[in-house]
Amino acid sequence: MRLNPRFTDKFVRAALLFQALFTVSILVFIVFIVFVKGAANITPEFIFSYPEDMGRHGGIFPAIVGTVFLAVLSIALATPLGVGTAIYLTEYTKESTLTRIIRFGVESLAGIPSIIYGLFGFIFFVIKLKLGWSLISGTLTIMIMVLPTIIRTAEEAIKSVPRNLRMVSFSLGATKWETVTKVVLPSAAPGILTGIMLSVGRAVSETAAVIFTMGSSLRLPTSLLDSGRTMAVHFYILAREGISLEKAYATALVLVVSILLINIVAYYTMNKMIARYN
Amino acid sequence: MDVKVAIQQLRLSFGKKEVLKGIDLDIVKNRIYGLMGPSASGKSTLISVINKMISFEDGVTMSGSVLLDGEDIINGDIDEVSLRKRIGTVFATPTPLPRSIFENVAFGPRLNNSTSRAELHALVEQSLRKSFLWDEVKDRLQESAMKLSGGQQQRLCLARTLALNPEIILLDEPCSGLDPISTAKIEEALAELKDQHTIILVSNNTKQIARATDFVAFFYLGELIEFGATDKVFTTPAVRMTEEYIQGKFG
Question: Domain A44-277 adopts which CATH fold?
Answer without folding.
Answer: MetI-like fold (1.10.3720)
